[in-house]
Amino acid sequence: MLRPLSDRTPPVARRVAYVLCLLAVFAGTPLQAQPTTPNETPVSIAATPVGGSDAFRPPALDAPPADPWLGMDKAKHVGGSLLLTLSTQYVLVVKADWAEGDALPVSMATAAGIGVAKEVYDRYAGPTAFFSTRDLVADAVGIALGVVVVLL
């Protein structure tokens, strides 16, 4: 049975517990492939057997999709990375009692790791099989904006 964290819980144990909770929240979301046609249903990646024919399909041989620098997708990446950086920083500093300087690299790494994981997912299991370095640049811009907000 799990016990709630108390004031007597060592600070290191509290920090580890909060970081594990963050990881559980982000890692517990099942990934789903988007339908390519209106009649097709999404397929859960977790439910696909290892070595299945559609689990990790090879890259498409045709040209990569258009990836404009100033599109809605880049705005979503900037905003998502900004919010991930700020929310992780808030949880670590306010809820887990970390020092701001100690929490900032963890906040940045969390947002960057999720951004890279999303692009790897897009490359191997996404509907377009396209890894976008422009999306990673947009993620970096969002993380930088989050750092600026934290340091203000």
Which SSEs are present, and which pair or pack?
Elements: H1 11-27, E1 32-33, E2 43-44, H2 72-95, H3 100-124, H4 133-151
Antiparallel strand pairs: 1-2
Helix pairs in contact: 1-2, 2-3, 2-4, 3-4
Q: Helix- and strand-based class? A: mainly alpha
Strand order of the largest sheet: 1-2
How many separate structural domains?
Answer: 1
Number of strand elements: 2
**Run of helices and strands:** HEEHHH
Shape: elongated
Count of individual helical segments = 4
Distance between the termini: 42 Å
Q: How big is the Rg?
A: 19 Å
Rounded mean pLDDT score: 76
Largest sheet report: 2 strands, antiparallel
Tell me roughly what share of residues is in helical segments: 55-70%
**Unreliable segments (pLDDT under 50, ≥5 consecutive)?**
28-33, 44-49
Q: Kindly estimate the percentage of residues that lie in beta strands according to DSSP.
A: under 5%
Give me some keywords for this one:
152 residues, two-stranded antiparallel sheet, 4 helices, 3% strand
Structural write-up:
It is a single chain. The protein is an all-alpha fold and 152 residues long. The protein contains 4 helices and 2 strands; from the N terminus they run αββααα. The chain has a two-stranded antiparallel sheet. Helix 2 packs antiparallel against helix 3 (100-124), helix 2 packs across helix 4 (133-151) and helix 3 (100-124) packs antiparallel against helix 4. The longest helix is centred in the C-terminal third of the chain and has 25 residues, at 100-124. It is elongated and about 60 Å long.
